[in-house]
Amino acid sequence: MIPYGRQDITQADIDAVVAVLQSDYLTQGPAVPRFEQVVSQHVGVKHALAVNSATSALHIACLALGLGPGDWLWTSPITFVASANCGLYCGAQVDFVDIDPQTYNMCPHALEAKLQQAKAQGKLPKVVVPVHLCGQPCNMAAIHTLSLKYGFKIIEDASHAIGGKYKDEFIGNCHYSDITVFSFHPVKIITTAEGGMALTNSDELADQMALLRSHGITRDAQRMTHEPDGPWYYQQVGLGFNYRMTELQAALGVSQMNRLDAYVSRRHELAKRYDFLLRDLPVVTPWQEPDSYSGLHLYVIRLQLDKITKSHRQVFELLRESGIGVNLHYIPVHTQPHYMQMGFKAGDFPKSERYYEDAISLPMFQTLTEVQQDIVVNVLGKVLRA
Ligand SMILES: *Cc1c(COP(=O)(O)O)cnc(C)c1O
């Protein structure tokens, strides 16, 4: 089976992890701060906090922004459930903004229309989570302008987008947001097995998130309510979690960061090649925003169902049966039973639902070979034409 995504682990990665195993610290040592420094320098942001998953990063990002009961978080329906669940963890309510049919990202016009309505009803969101689907950045300039007008905070879910650029600057620099989140799950662009990171230029948000990731505990005397009782002393000044990343994961992350730019360029080569090879098939290839450079986590095609005799599901099943590990990113979150139970229903976000009816993620990862890619295209051609 040719998978849709796969990690690339080199001998240097293995050596880096083994070196940590043989060192004094398996957790809470020097590798995590080193990884944070490497990533923050690369993307050009002041603070980076490594955590055990992007889901945890989203959770502490929401809490640091003060999201709680009575508040609203808005995100895109075409995302992994974690982008929405983080709002529920905080006791807030979640709503969605439909996608732009060309980029599949949150549509800034739909956002503006919904904000106008919400303002009239006194239900403006506290936090909006734009998701850079497939690694292609959202229209952050427009979303940022709306945030100033309507007073909401922005968390960029850049789980797909490390290594990508928006207006010639690396995604993660938070120039248009309060906090940006990366994921290092093995299918993503670089991996730490499980892992994530929250990035921000705000000292205050970084402090808050540092407390939240480790029990709400501080060893910084300046943050304590009184002088330390002694050298053993720490204080719990709030309620946090254990969301820490291990040293093994961080060492792997540092080693993977050496290849980030090469990974993303390779993904671009593969995407260009797909664009070319698929040009005569009844599919829509991904549209690339001209003033951005996608991280290209995913390569999503849309079937032109009016031009083929098979159904979306039949095409998907035939590809899987032929050893092509296609996938579908994503099932619209508002149609998940957990969200339907809150009152969402089919038809609420028609562009997202339309996308779900014909989208397929083709294999896209740095070590995908051209031979494998040719197999994918040949099988797809046969399935669509038969
Ligand atoms: C993978 C992913 C997440 C969650 O990442 P984890 O590191 O697995 O918690 C969140 N949002 C999006 C868009 C993702 O693709």
Provide key terms for this protein.
386 residues; alpha/beta; Aspartate Aminotransferase, domain 2; Aspartate Aminotransferase, domain 1; three-stranded antiparallel beta sheet; binds pyridoxal-5'-phosphate
Can you characterise this structure?
- The structure is a single chain.
- The protein is of the alpha/beta class and 386 residues long.
- It has two domains: 2-257, Type I PLP-dependent aspartate aminotransferase-like (Major domain) (Aspartate Aminotransferase, domain 2), CATH 3.40.640.10; 260-385, Aspartate Aminotransferase, domain 1.
- Helices cover 38% and strands 13% of the residues.
- It has a seven-stranded mixed β-sheet with strand order 1-9-8-5-4-2-3, with helices on both faces. It has a three-stranded antiparallel β-sheet with strand order 7-6-13, with no helix packed on it. A three-stranded antiparallel β-sheet has the order 12-14-15.
- Helix 3 (54-64) crosses helix 7 (203-213) and helix 5 runs parallel beside helix 6 (140-150).
- The model has no long low-confidence stretch (mean pLDDT 98).
- The site of pyridoxal-5'-phosphate (PLP) has 14 residues, from helix 3 and helix 4.
